[in-house]
Amino acid sequence: MGIIAWILIGLFAGIIAKMLMPGKDPGGIIVTILIGIAGGLLGGWLGKVIFGVDSIDGFFDISTWLAAIIGSVILLALYRIITGNRRHA
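Below the sequence we write its predicted structure tokens.
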């Protein structure tokens, strides 16, 4: 997949992860995209290591999207743990 496909998957996976884990997070759309892209890579790697499957096959494959969303949820949870409850007044 090309870089534009990764950015699109990352954007949507990050948005879906935020919908699954509602709350106020520091950072905007750029952080969402970065969490989504990194989450897709993490999800693909975990799928390969744990289940022995190539979970990042193509843009329209459900396994690609599931891997990206699961990885994004994991990274969003870690991001929240690391940043804590920092809130701007």
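Residues 29-51 form the longest helix (23 residues).
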